[in-house]
Design a protein that fits this description.
This protein is mostly helical. It has one domain. Helices cover 82% and strands 0% of the residues. The protein contains 12 helices and no strands. α1 (2-27) packs across α3 (63-89) and α3 runs antiparallel to α4. The longest helix is centred in the last third of the chain and has 34 residues, at 268-301. The two termini are 33 Å apart.
Length: 302
């Protein structure tokens, strides 16, 4: 029992760190593209060391699966680019709030990609989220509306790679998937920087605090969080982890108030819309839990 409590605490520490990644988009004073490039590089190196020490699988022997994994890796990089762009255009609270709609994108992507049954209840949840976004964006200017669009694009990318990874995980170890996605992500980001004329000395122009936060982002929030989450899922189950992750936007908004003083930038409509979106995301997870338990009970009777 005590050991289970330890895993619950570790899970919430990890979610808290993920919530902090939105804050880092403001605390790290370099371009969003540079943040993503450094995050992936640091994560890749530390992940290689971690997987080697833990003797976890790193190879993908099948060429077709390898190509699919590399494709998903580019979606992951695009997700991070748009996520940090959204934060730098507006606030950490807005960026992470947009990201909280990821699970609702998954509800319509799963029937298309994984051939799962379409749910009208989840469609209703999606409509409620749109209503929440209306509250959030009602008093925004053009720059913040652009941040909202970029943030929602980031959530769509997150949903895409989540669903594709779920399909890949049926045949490939999760450690191998992540390692190869980080590798292609680094190549993809290097090409993006080169195409934008940004692959120059500016990549290395940063303060000591920028370096410290980038190391924290790449090692703790990415590599360590990934390896620890695999172990936690074994102990607590995938659903418990998925349900708990819905608290990420709550942690970010709570952190943004004292650290970034974003309460001075956000009005009551933002918090009404935020509460509505977070409530719908959690309700969606609870609905899935009930549906899953009913299905399990039905199968047990057969």
């Amino acid at each position: 029992m005590f050991q289970k409590i330890q895993y619950y605490l570790l899970l919430h520490v990890i979610i808290f760190m993920w919530g902090f990644t939105g804050i880092l988009g403001k605390l790290i004073h370099i371009d969003a593209l540079y943040i993503v490039w450094w995050r992936i590089l640091i994560a890749l190196v530390s992940l290689l060391i971690g997987l080697y020490l833990l003797k976890m699988p790193m190879r993908i022997p099948d060429r077709k699966l390898m190509l699919k994994t590399l494709g998903v890796g580019m979606i992951v990089a695009t997700h991070w680019i748009t996520f940090y762009m959204s934060i730098q255009l507006s606030t950490a609270s807005l960026g992470i709030l947009c990201l909280s709609t990821t699970t609702l994108h998954v509800t319509w992507l799963e029937p298309l990609i994984l051939k799962k049954r379409f749910s009208w209840v989840e469609c209703l949840f999606g409509c409620l989220v749109i209503f929440g976004i209306y509250f959030v964006s009602d008093s925004f200017d053009a720059k913040q509306n652009l941040a909202l669009i970029v943030g929602l694009l980031s959530a769509l990318c997150a949903a895409l790679f989540s669903v594709f990874n779920a399909k890949l995980a049926e045949e490939v170890p999760a450690s191998s998937i992540t390692l190869h996605e980080m590798a292609i992500g680094l190549v993809f980001m290097t090409v993006v920087l080169a195409s934008q004329g940004m692959l120059n000395g500016s990549l290395f122009k940063m303060t000591g605090s920028d370096i410290g936060w980038l190391l924290f982002l790449g090692i703790m929030c990415t590599s360590f969080a990934f390896l620890a989450t695999i172990e936690i899922m074994k102990r607590l189950g995938a659903f418990t982890v998925a349900l708990s992750i819905n608290l990420e936007p709550v942690y970010t908004i709570l952190l943004a108030i004292p650290i970034l003083e974003e309460n001075d930038l956000l009005n009551n409509d933002f918090y009404i819309g935020s509460a509505m979106i977070i409530a719908v995301v959690i309700a969606n997870a609870v609905y899935k839990a009930i549906a899953r338990s009913r299905q399990t009970a039905k199968e047990a009777k057969l």
